[in-house]
Specification:
The protein is of the alpha+beta class. It folds into three domains: 21-83, no CATH class; 137-294, Rossmann fold, CATH 3.40.50; 302-631, no CATH class. Belongs to the eukaryotic diacylglycerol kinase family.
Length: 645
């Protein structure tokens, strides 16, 4: 008796073809008919699969290609798993037409073969559109809601956190509160996510018909600070702490603060053009964003400075809430300028009375200026001993005779002088260390417009030699040092005269300012100690302003400067940006090679071995045998590499 059983399962599972013969003795074996049936079955199928990939590769199209045939062994065909279930993320609706073996309804889809996603093609999927609906440019705005007259609160109180620009839908704007820990971390988590996509080349290309500028398209991650000059560096500090690649980021700002030197040197003005940042239907914010996305690129040096004190001193921010801080070392970043003396004294008093509106803050600052004009400013040379570069003393300041704390003496105390070291001949009331050609909240080119004052330094050599100076640039690895010599100079400063300062020199990274040994004999008045007020009459206390933030330093030891990084900013393309003008001029004059060489000097300096993590001994005096790397006592961090703007 012969029995043939054929039971194929054509629902995508195993297909079992059981052909057997039952013999009188009960044995089952394959015979010639078995082999014939197999050959006919294989010829009937028009699809042949190969085991070159996990699911097989289709060599011949056909609607029955739902299994893999094994031509090398007599075994059951293997199923193709991706045709057996709906992939994760796709929807499945039993009411829709059944997708069966490559058919949708009655039509064959060639892309149903293995290697293609098995979607239900009954609706428009985001992945199926030309640009997948994803943005090409990500704009992150980190807002300080307390800057200036607190206009930033309009942004942080919005009910939405991200949106697309209607005129440039490829741009996605994301807004975060930098003062809110949770919101700030969320913003930088998203930034790191986009950074990873950019480095893997997974971001969508910017459309050719995009309304954003040609320059803005070159980098698809933009980071803006919305606040004052202090907020600019706060955002940069966060970029560094989260290890964001500076080579793929454009940086810009929205000015909400009081001075906003950074915004002005980029050509975006001292404050926003409208009273409110949002406007009707967000028009003000959109216009402001599109304006910056039409900007031009300009490089900007970021410096790291370290303020250190003796064991008997402290370094802390000015203001009541920082009274309990007694740090011996303060490290921070800087991009604008530092003032030791006049602006520090006035600003420290201003911090104790800061208000919530920009107009009142200006009045408070004017009041503090008038108070100090009546009181008189002490000469900074009572505390500054000189400057060191590369372990070598390059400037020495004479100590004025102590006739009074606030009056600079004409006579000097006899000191041992090195004939080869330049010497300050005056006793200025303010030391200015400048990176950008903008200061005091005004577009003031102090270095370029200074026409006199070379007599302030005697025996000029090295960085104080005018013959070695170059035009001021914010990306050349150098900073300019200037001084205000007297109260008369300060009055001219308030009146916006630009020729009243004296140029000391151009100092390349790294360099430092050295201070004298502290005076431990002075005792503050008992009522000042009781109220825990800063005694500005104390000759061992000096006040510093750095990028809009103020510090009180008692018994200072040194302030070290080194170029830390270089960022690429977006400035006003219409000629209002000094940084953009300088960048274009440098290219036209072929001075880019000098800038690159200065950058390489910094790269050579700030690339120490990984093992060097311990601080080196402090510098107390000139040591010609010391190398540049030994001068810096902080673990160096990499400078952003030069590349296309």
């Amino acid at each position: 008796m012969t029995e043939t059983v054929s039971s194929p399962r054509e629902n995508g599972n195993d297909i079992h073809t059981k052909d057997h013969v039952t013999m009188p003795n009960g044995d089952v074996k394959l015979d010639e008919m078995n082999e014939k049936n197999k050959q006919q079955y294989n010829q009937k199928k028009s699809k042949t699969l190969n085991r070159e990939s996990s699911y097989g590769e289709i060599h011949e199209q056909g609607p029955e290609a739902f299994f893999e045939a094994d031509n090398n062994a007599n075994e059951n065909p293997a199923p193709i798993p991706h045709l057996q279930q709906v992939p994760r993320g796709d929807s499945y609706d039993e009411s829709q037409e059944k997708l069966d073996h490559g058919y949708v309804g009655k039509s064959w889809r060639a892309d149903s073969r293995p290697g293609y996603s098995n979607k239900i093609y009954t609706s428009v999927m985001l992945e199926d559109s030309e640009h997948e609906g994803r943005p090409s440019v990500y704009l992150f705005i980190f807002v300080n809601p307390l800057s200036g007259d607190q206009k930033g609160q309009e942004l942080t109180r919005m009910a939405i956190q991200s949106f697309r620009l209607k005129q440039a839908p490829e741009v996605q704007v994301q807004i975060y509160n930098i003062l809110d820990d949770k919101d700030r971390e969320l913003g930088f988590e998203m930034l790191k996510l986009v950074e990873g996509m950019a480095e893997r080349d997974e971001l969508m290309p910017v459309p050719e018909n995009s309304k954003i500028g040609t320059t803005a398209r070159r980098r698809q991650i933009h980071v803006w600070s919305a606040g004052g000059d202090g907020t600019v560096m706060s955002v940069f500090e966060e970029l560094v702490s989260h290890k964001v690649n500076l080579d793929i980021v454009y940086f810009s700002c929205i000015p909400f603060g009081t001075g906003n030197d950074f915004s002005q040197v980029l050509g975006w003005g001292r404050t926003i053009p409208n009273k409110d940042i949002l406007g009707t239907y967000l028009n003000h914010l959109v216009d402001l964003s599109l304006q910056r996305l039409q900007g031009e690129a300009a490089r900007l040096d970021i410096w790291e400075l370290e303020i250190s004190t003796h064991d008997t001193g402290y370094a802390r921010k000015a203001g009541k809430k920082h009274r309990d801080d007694n740090s011996k070392i303060v490290t921070r970043k800087m991009c604008n300028y530092m003032s030791i003396g006049v602006q520090g004294y006035v600003g420290s008093g201003f911090e104790n009375q800061r208000t919530g509106t920009r107009e009142f803050n200006v009045l408070v600052y004017a009041y503090e200026s008038a108070k100090w004009m009546r009181r008189g400013f002490p000469p900074v040379t009572k505390m500054i001993e000189g400057m060191t570069q590369g372990g070598k003393k390059v400037l020495r300041c004479r100590n004025p005779n102590k006739k009074g704390v606030h009056k600079a003496a004409v006579e000097d105390e006899p000191e041992q002088e090195d004939e080869n070291v330049p010497v300050m001949t005056k006793h200025p009331i303010d030391f200015v260390i400048q990176n950008i050609p903008h200061i005091w909240g005004r577009e003031v080119d102090l270095w370029g417009n200074a026409v006199s004052g070379l007599e302030v330094v005697d025996n000029r050599t090295g960085p104080t030699d005018p013959s070695l100076w170059s035009p001021q640039r914010a990306n050349d690895g150098k900073m300019e040092v200037l001084v205000l010599n007297s109260m008369y100079s300060y009055l001219k400063k308030l009146a916006n005269f630009q020729d009243h300062v004296s140029r000391v020199g151009q100092f390349a990274s790294p360099f430092q300012i050295d201070f004298r040994e502290p005076d431990l004999t002075y005792k503050s008045k008992w009522w000042r100690r009781k109220k825990d007020k800063t005694d500005y009459k104390d000759p061992s206390v000096i006040c510093i302003m750095c990028d809009g933030e103020f510090y009180e330093v008692k018994h200072p030891k040194s302030i070290k400067f080194r170029r830390f990084a270089q960022i690429t900013t977006l400035g006003n393309a219409e000629g209002n940006s000094r940084l953009v003008r300088d960048e274009k001029e440098a290219k036209e004059n072929n001075t880019g090679e000098e800038v690159d060489r200065a950058q390489q000097d910094v790269n050579d300096y700030v690339q120490p071995s990984e093992e060097r993590v311990e601080r080196q001994p402090e510098l107390n005096g000139p040591d010609p045998s010391q190398t540049n790397e030994e001068v810096d006592n902080t673990p160096a961090k990499p400078v952003a590499k030069e590349g296309p703007l």
